[in-house]
Amino acid sequence: MRLILLGAPGAGKGTVAKMLTKIDGSVQISTGDILRGAVQAGTELGKQAEEYMKRGDLVPDELIMGIMEKRLQEPDCAKGFLLDGFPRTIPQAEALKELLARLDIKLDMVVNIDVPREVILDRLTTRRTCSNPECQAIYNVKSNPPKQEGVCDKCGSPVIQRDDETEEAINHRLETYNEKTAPLIGFYEKEGLLKTITGTSSEVVVKEITAALGL
Predict the structure, then answer these.
(1) Of the segments 20-24, 46-50, 84-88, 94-98, which one has the largest average pLDDT value?
(2) pTM above 0.85, yes or no
(3) N or C end: fewer C-beta atoms under 10 angstroms in the chain?
């Protein structure tokens, strides 16, 4: 399957993508992962991206598209790919459309995971992450707390609330999403690729996606 997953922060894109990869061997591709991968590999594009990341600046679209072009041509993408959190803006969507046409790749569908704002706020403000950069296990104080409060089950490091997961920070992230990324819904609707799924359960979302693809 070749999909783009859209949805606000906390909509469950990453969880849904991980579940879908197990169905047909498609690979999950997030912009963050490919940027980090290019930086670690020390590629020319990776070195350029690293300079922006170190300054805390956004990596320019042309660099991201260059790295994305290389990534989509790697052998593991032959079975399919799930773009998680990319594209984020209309210019990125237009550049991606050109890139896929050039590579002769057709998207199956663009899935918009629609989750109520109050559910997202509740999900993210109760999320906790292991502070060990090598582990990064994710917990939820309500639905999936660590066995010992404040301590990671896997590595024993302290479990923390990330700075970008306070209520104030989440409201800001949602505003940014609505301003920059939500217009993609209209873009892909015009392309005839959009399927909106309203659901707070990742299992339900995955079932609807596989049914729509006839899997």
Answers:
(1) 94-98
(2) no
(3) C
Instruction: Mark whether 71 is an active-site residue.
Output: no
- Element (DSSP H or E) covering residue 112: strand 109-114
Q: Which of 2, 71, 127, 128 is catalytic?
A: 127
CA distance 215 to 204: 14
Tell me if residue 13 is catalytic.
Answer: yes
Q: From the candidates 2, 71, 88, 128, which is the catalytic residue?
A: 88
* CATH fourth-level superfamily of 2-26+80-213: P-loop containing nucleotide triphosphate hydrolases (3.40.50.300)
Return the domain boundaries, the chain.
Answer: 2-26+80-213
Q: How many CB atoms lie within 10 A of CB 20?
A: 25
Q: Using the structure block, give the residue that is written with the tokens 């990324």.
A: 181
Q: Which of 13, 71, 123, 128 is catalytic?
A: 13
pLDDT of residue 146: 96
pLDDT tens digit sequence for 136-183: 899 999 989 999 999 999 999 999 998 888 888 888 888 888 888 889
Q: How far apart are CA 143 and CA 202, in angstroms?
A: 14
Distance between CA atoms of residues 70 and 213, nearest Å: 27
